[in-house]
Amino acid sequence: MANINKILEEKMERLEAAKKKYQATKAKLATEQSAQDKLESANKNAETQFKESETMMTEVEKEIRSKKEILFKESQTLFKLRAEQANLIGDISGTLSASRNLQANITKLKIEKQRQQELIYTQDF
């Protein structure tokens, strides 16, 4: 009987050891599952942020293309306006030269008129 009690006691000790090992393994499994859940949640958040950043990048690229098109059109307009400005400056310069020439002719004619009036005046007396 002592032998049976000893065998029973050894089996009870092994059972207790197995229960402890089972509880430890169960706790480790719960910890690992919790860690896995956290990692999956972090992964989902990262994927969401990645998609949002891709969407934002696409929108920014569209805006950049739009701004480049506007810049190109404005550059063309500026080029045309500068060409027109150069033409107008040339016209103004030509008109000023013509005005100076006409003013010089008017001065010559005034001098000639004065001279002729002097000649008429001297002939009258």
The main pleated sheet reads as: none
Coarse structural class: mainly alpha
Proportion of strand residues: under 5%
Over all CA atoms, what is the radius of gyration?
53 Å
Strands, count: 0
Q: Any low-confidence stretches, pLDDT <50, length ≥5?
A: none
The ordered string of helix (H) and strand (E) elements is H
State the gist of this model.
With 125 residues, this protein is mostly helical.
Structure description:
Helices cover 98% and strands 0% of the residues. It is mainly alpha-helical. The mean pLDDT is 95. The relative contact order is 0.03. The radius of gyration is 53 Å and the shape is rod-shaped.
Topology:
Blueprint: H1 2-124
Identify the notable features of this structure and list them briefly.
mainly alpha, 0% strand, 1 helix, 125 residues
